[in-house]
Write a structure and sequence with these properties.
The chain is built from 13 helices and 11 strands. The chain is of the alpha+beta class. The strands form 5 sheets. The protein has a 3-stranded antiparallel β-sheet, with helices on one face.
Length: 315
């Protein structure tokens, strides 16, 4: 009887070890809420699994992530190790995701990545490229985000995002999940004249000749992003020939290189940009590594391709 009591007591004091879906190392800017969203669990479940007395966590802390309710057989993510030359856009193309989705899923404040960096990729995602009938997608706010910057990524105004989410003001916080209405359709070849298309291809040539093809596509995308932005003229000639404070916005217009014929590679890049490809995720500016402009260097960097740097607008 005495030994039986000891066995019962041991069973009470030493419960079966729980099965964890994964271990996760906390990154700067993480919160229990954003981590729970990544693993499709809840804040309270992570707290309970790690015996946390509060929601306070710190970078470098390793958390056990409980299995999702329903007993899924694996985590909802896989790992990808960044290779030289990778950008979030290129990685997203492989997995059917947008740059913004990868940034949000990994708690990245910007689009800069480096070789050897390990990114988590959600499984089973089709991204937002299908343009389905839902009319919206979800975006998780990361540190440094503003409604304006988020809007730039999706070709929307801050007011549109506020109205769509029933927000009374522009204040947002990391971990907040916003619903993003479908962006306006990209400018297409059929929407512009042959002359405007040739002008776009010539600017791509003048600004990025000698750079990787993806950089050429990105230059074309920046021009089209400006066309869609309320802060710039709403047509290609207006954007390319825009004068501000007595200066042309693009150096090739001032020095005459814009008048040189477009190269075949730049023409193809212009076609791809008009087809909706945007390696920058919504950038409105670009410059090369020799730039010294304080204004340009102060802008949030979207990505680097070759010797070119693409940037979002400042808030």
């Amino acid at each position: 009887m005495f030994y039986r009591s000891l066995l019962v007591l041991a069973a009470v004091l030493v419960p079966l070890s729980p099965a964890w879906a994964a271990s996760y190392t906390v990154l700067p800017g993480d919160s229990l809420y954003t981590i729970s969203q990544k693993f499709n669990t809840t804040t309270s479940a992570i707290q309970q699994a790690n015996r946390l007395q509060s929601t306070v966590i710190y970078p470098g802390q390793v958390l056990d992530i409980p299995e999702k309710a329903g007993g899924g057989s694996s985590t909802d993510a896989e790992s990808y190790t960044v290779a030289p030359g990778d950008t979030l856009y290129l990685i997203g193309q492989r997995y059917g995701l947008s740059s913004a989705e990868i940034m949000a899923y990994n708690g990245l404040a910007g689009a800069d990545i480096y070789p050897g960096q390990v990114l988590r990729i959600p499984e089973g995602s089709d991204g937002d490229s299908s343009g389905g009938s839902t009319g919206s997608e979800s975006y998780t706010v990361v540190r440094g985000d503003t409604l304006y910057l988020i809007g730039q990524r999706y070709g929307l105004g801050s007011a549109q995002i506020m109205a769509y989410n029933g927000l009374a003001g522009a204040d947002i916080y990391p971990g907040q999940v916003l619903r993003i209405p479908q962006s306006p359709p990209p400018v297409s070849r059929g929407d512009i004249s042959r002359e405007d298309f040739d002008l776009l291809a010539r600017l791509v040539t003048a600004e990025s000749d000698g750079e990787p093809h993806l950089a050429k596509v990105a230059v074309g995308a920046v021009i089209l992003n400006r066309v869609r932005s309320r802060h710039f003229p709403n047509n290609i000639p207006g954007v390319i020939y825009q004068v501000e404070n007595g200066l042309y916005q693009f150096e090739p217009v001032a020095n005459g290189w814009i008048n040189h014929p477009a190269t075949p590679d730049s023409t193809r890049a212009a076609e791809e940009a008009l087809g909706g490809q945007d390696p920058t995720g919504g950038a409105l500016y670009f410059y090369d590594t020799s730039a010294t402009s304080r204004f340009l260097l102060s802008l949030p960097v979207a990505c680097r391709i070759g010797n070119m740097i693409f940037a979002f607008s400042a808030v």
